[in-house]
Amino acid sequence: MQKLIASILFFTCVSFWSHGQDIQVSLGPDEIGENQAWTITITVNNDRLKAYDKFPDINGFQKRGVSSQRQSSNINGQVSFSESAVMTYAPQAQGVINVPSFKLKVNDQVISVPGKKVKVGAAVKAVDPFRSLFDRDPARDFFGGETEFVDVKEDALLAITTNKDEVYVGEGFTTTLSFLVADNNRAPMQFHDLGKQLTDILKKLRPSNCWEENFNIENIEGESIEIGGKGYTQYKIYQATFYPLNAQSITFPSVGLEMIKFKVAKNPSFFGQNRKEDYKTFQSKPKTVRVKELPPHPMRDAVAVGNYKLDERLASTNLGTGQSVSYEFNVYGEGNISGIEKPNVKKDNSFDFYEPNIKQNVSRENNRVTGSKSFTYFMIPKEPGKYNLGDYFQWVFFNPGTKKYDTLKSKQLLTVTGESQTNSAIESNDTGSFYSRIESADNTLLSSTKGDWMKIGLNIFILLALGGAAYLVFKK
Question: Is this structure's pTM higher than 0.90?
Fold first, then answer.
């Protein structure tokens, strides 16, 4: 952040250092006239006022602009100084204005400011021109009245850049939104309210037909670059790699970034106000990236696009039938790692393959997205023999560098010994007893009604037999 302030806030000053830093935020009076101004003042003692948040918007007040002040003293050889930024508010009507509590970030410190109520009364009379010396601003009297501020032409721009102008479907390209400040720039500027602005910018900037890998820039730091033989300091605000999902061209529209731009005093002085806060919006130019279809291929709609290699691991190369083993098929390289699908696995009676465990690692740095995705399988051989796992595990991808399709195949060789277990599952569910009855079985279809009557007759016979037996017992 210090590098940012040094490069963007450029103005002549004299620095004094003391034993510590003291930051204060003070509010204006409780009562003012309708024609009087009300202020919020940030004061930093014994340090520079390097950066601060946007002053709050207050219902009933209208912002009139920011001014800055600098004071110093030397008492008995002890040097102290302070810098201040003052936001001036003008009341919009008479009444009571509620100033809510708020927080301001000043020099990387968050200051909590309690609210208050301000009574706005009738307009007050003009100040007596013969007022006491103690009612005057001595610095203003000494240096000759009102300070005149001028606008310094800036040498800076907001730019959207991409590392490729043309890509295939699925091929990644990195997009960067940067604020560029020329080395010879003399206009003092500063970022403000960047989080809120960036949220609105990204709603316009993110293409809907792409997978995004965001670099998540947290600290904006300046980097020296050269464009057309001219030196700039680049401040990356947003960066992401996009992977087109279809062949529709991608257009990034023009977006705007509001910056604090200070007007500077025409005749700067040590004690007086040397800059005044203003705002300017910088607009980027639109940018288009053309997207091409992949060359014809049976798997064109299902392959990954990138530059990939294979790293594989087999727990053991010698097994017995029925013995399980783990096998890792690890794809690594540059591309859309999150979009990598599992390899095609050939299935036959020689192996049982189980669904893989999947792990991935994605790295976003140096304008590139790299990483790996591994698929760990458990498999059980059922037939003895020697096997090339390349016949079972294959993964097809398109390499935009060579503009060709390529296939990653396993190079592992596996030796299996033991007895065949292919028919073990069939034997464990023997159905021979069923087939052995086919020849002796009667193929005559029986009516379901006839079967029901036979059951009823049998039940009646049993009931009659029981009744007769009971009769003989009681008679005897």
Answer: no
